[in-house]
Amino acid sequence: MGGKAWGRVTVDLDPMASSPATDRPAPADDVRDDAGRRPMFPDGPAARPHPGAHHERRIRTFHPRRGRVTDAQADAINRLWRRWGLDIDGTPLDLAALFAPGRGGDAAQDSPGTPPPPVVLEIGFGMGDATAAMAAADPATGILAVDVHTPGQGNLLHLAEDAGLENVRVGNGDAVVLLRDMLAPASLAGLRVYFPDPWPKARHHKRRLIQPEFVRLAVSRLAPGAVVHCATDWEPYAEQMLEVLSAEPALRNEHDGYAPRPAFRPMTKFERQGLAKGHVVHDLLFTRV
Questions:
Q1: Integer Cα distance of 149 and 100 in angstroms
Q2: How far out from the chain centre does Cα 153 lie?
Q3: Separation in Å, CA 126 to CA 3, 60, 149, 193, 230
Q4: What is the pLDDT of residues 135-186, one digit of tens each?
Q5: Where are the domains of the chain?
Q6: The CATH number of the domain covering residues in 8-288
Q7: Segment 200-222, tens digit of pLDDT
Q8: Whole-number Cα distances in Å, 180 to 185, 216, 219
Q9: Residue 10: burial class (beta carbons within 10 Å; 0-12, 13-18, 19+)
Q10: Nearest 5 degrees, angle CA 140-CA 141-CA 143?
Q11: Which of 38, 57, 237, 285 qualifies as a cystine partner to 254, CB 3.0-4.6 A?
């Protein structure tokens, strides 16, 4: 395949599958998209987990990213997606079932009646290093980590398995669809948004995730006492976050303005990059009342 590099696979649709059809019939289990192309990971994250959302008349805050996936990431997706992965397709979600002990394995049968953990939603986890570290530090809390970056999804699955983590689930798709259509009211114990795209150009500010409408939706899915934790190294976005979160009557700021950097939040790649450029990192901690 064109573009192949040593130790990596190209997360692209199979170019051979889009060539003119031959006389040989396709296997019964041959999975293809509407254009007749075969996805790299038939049992992995879908390219369009919720096709209908693509046609909704609303502003997108992200762009799906594929890129290149290492062999280790590809192996993790192929083996672990059915167990720990979730396509955000608009179907109502049972968090207790999603975080059942040993989901996808035999361990679930060994722990009948185990109560589900409190679940925190993390939107945008990059390569998953900070997510895995926080999951390891707090195994009693489930983390539903959502992103559209295939290499990051594979990397987080790899990190979770390597560390023996059972409290991480990886979501693929639009977090708005997840919050709006799939999660029940008051079902989350927290929301984490670390270093989201700042969309620095003025004409793109409308694409920023932390907006009044989004916060209103997210708060409706938070249980009383749930913590909203945001962090950014982009000063104007930090000011917007503080303004929007402070204006939401269902949230209470736990500090006078910005919060001190909490020790429980690991240093992320984006944070290191921002600090190297001389940026100031701001954390915000609000509680659902």
A1: 25
A2: 8
A3: 23, 18, 7, 11, 15
A4: 999 999 999 999 999 999 999 999 999 999 999 999 999 999 999 999 999 9
A5: 8-288
A6: 3.40.50.150
A7: 999 989 999 999 999 999 999 99
A8: 9, 11, 11
A9: middle
A10: 140
A11: 285
DSSP per-residue string spanning the chain: -TT--TTEEE-S--GGGGSPP-SSPPPTT----TTSPPPS-TTS--SSSSGGGGGSSS--S---B--EEEHHHHHHHHHHHHHHEEE--S----HHHHT-TTTTSSGGGGSTTPPPPPEEEEE--TTSHHHHHHHHH-TTSEEEEEE-BHHHHHHHHHHHHHHT--SEEEEES-HHHIIIIISPTT-EEEEEEES-----SGGGGGG-S--HHHHHHHHHTEEEEEEEEEEES-HHHHHHHHHHHHH-TTEEESSSSSBPPPTTSPPPHHHHHHHHTTPPPEEEEEEE-
Residue 256, burial from CB neighbour count under 10 angstroms (0-12, 13-18, 19+): exposed
89/53: higher pLDDT? 89
Could you tell me the CA-to-CA distances from 279 to 130, 199, 236, 283, 285 in Å, in that order? 20, 16, 11, 13, 20
Catalytic annotation present for 147: no
What is the residue whose two structure tokens read 């990190």?
159
The residues, any chain, with a CB within 8 Å of residue 30's CB and separated by 6 or more, are 38
Rg (the chain; Cα; Å): 20
pTM attached to this predicted model: 0.80
Q: Choosing from 33, 197, 233, 256, which is the catalytic residue?
A: 197
User: Which pLDDT tens digit goes with each residue over 42-73?
Assistant: 777 887 776 665 555 555 545 555 568 999 99
Q: How far is CA 51 from CA 47, 66, 196, 221, in A?
A: 9, 17, 24, 23
